[in-house]
Amino acid sequence: MEDGKNAHLILLFLSGAVMILVGLDLVTDYASGSSGSHLLLEGALLAVSGTFFVLAVKRLLSANKEILSLKGDMAALDQEKERWQQETHQLLAGLSVKIEKQFAHWKLTQAETEVGFLLLKGFSLKEIADIRNTQVKTVQQQSQSIYQKTGLASRAQLAAFFLEDLLPPGQPST
To answer: What is the pLDDT of residues 1-14, one digit of tens each?
Structure first.
């Protein structure tokens, strides 16, 4: 991005320099009595370089205006993201407490509670074993114990137990 900006600035500077040099040459040629066709040719070159310079300046100003607008949009999005994260963090903290209370009601051990949270977060049994520095077979046994104590048959049912009330009701079929 910065290289492109530098390249544009260099081109803008060069087009301005060409315009000035052609203008100066045109003035000196006119003063020295050059032919009309030569002056006309240099005048056309001055007009082309001047047009290019003006268009480049307009494009640069437009790009800067767009950058400022995008920076403003980004700042607004960052504020919205921060607000959303704060609200969500509070909700998730409350949900986490409720889940932990339900795990205690089911009389899950501390290890089963940890595995239960990791199951709800979507980790595979292998990932849970790695996180907890244990064997996959141990995690399998703990997850089976969770399902027996809760009366649920699977990870999906465990997640649904907690998520069912959070999601809006399904639309009745017509």
So the answer is: 566 667 777 877 88
Residue tagged 């003035």 (tokens):
27
| Confidence check: pLDDT of 17 > 90 | no
Q: Where are the alpha helices (DSSP H) in the chain?
A: 2-31, 36-105, 110-120, 125-132, 136-150, 155-163
- Phi first, then psi: give them for residue 154, nearest 5 degrees: -160, 175
Please choose, from the candidates 62, 74, 53, the residue with its C-alpha nearest in 3D space to the C-alpha of residue 11: 53
CB 126 within 8 A of CB 136: yes
Q: How far apart are CA 174 and CA 172, in angstroms?
A: 6
119 touches 147 (CB < 8 A): no
Burial 26-46 (b: 16+ CB within 10 A, else e): beebeeeeeeeeeeeebbebb
Q: Does the predicted model carry a pTM greater than 0.70? A: no
Radius of gyration of the chain from its Cα atoms, rounded to whole angstroms: 35
> What average pLDDT does the chain have?
87
Q: CB-based contacts of 126: which residues, under 8 Å, 6+ apart?
A: 136
Distance CA 174, CA 159 (A): 28
